[in-house]
Design a protein that fits this description.
This protein has 110 residues and is mostly beta strands. It has one domain. Helix content is 4%, strand content 36%. The strands form two sheets. Strands 5-6-7-1-8 form a five-stranded mixed sheet, with no helix packed on it. Strands 4-3-2-9 form a four-stranded antiparallel sheet, with no helix packed on it. The radius of gyration is 17 Å and the shape is elongated. It starts with a strand and ends in an 18-residue tail after the last strand. The mean pLDDT is 91.
């Protein structure tokens, strides 16, 4: 599976993504693309997910899709310009993310 990432400014946390064969589980919701035949395209409107953006295709037997990648106001280069992820083993998919900066403390004056 080839996962492209589409960075989007958002306060949402990075989703938990798990790969298994031709299926992705995103935050507990399973999306099984096993029935998609080779050279076929599934339109974006056919996938009920805010995380999967754009079409899903099977090219030369491999699923290709794009996931939204939320990020804060000052993303690192790795998050703002992510490389595609090629997933070949079942398990958790590691998405790039930035560690949130601690909130500034405001001094209270009495």
């Amino acid at each position: 599976m080839i996962i492209d990432l589409s960075p989007v400014r958002s306060d949402k946390p990075v989703p938990e993504v798990v790969y298994s064969k031709d299926a992705l589980t995103i935050n507990g919701q399973v999306f099984d693309f096993g029935p998609l035949p080779d050279s076929a395209t599934l339109p974006a409107a056919a996938v009920d997910s805010d995380w999967i953006v754009g079409e899903v295709e099977r090219i030369d037997g491999e699923i290709h899709l794009t996931l939204m990648l939320p990020h804060g106001p000052n993303p690192s280069h790795a998050v703002a310009f992510p490389e595609p992820i090629r997933v070949i083993r079942a398990g958790a998919v590691k998405l790039p993310f930035d560690v949130p900066e601690p909130a500034e403390e405001v001094a209270h004056v009495d």
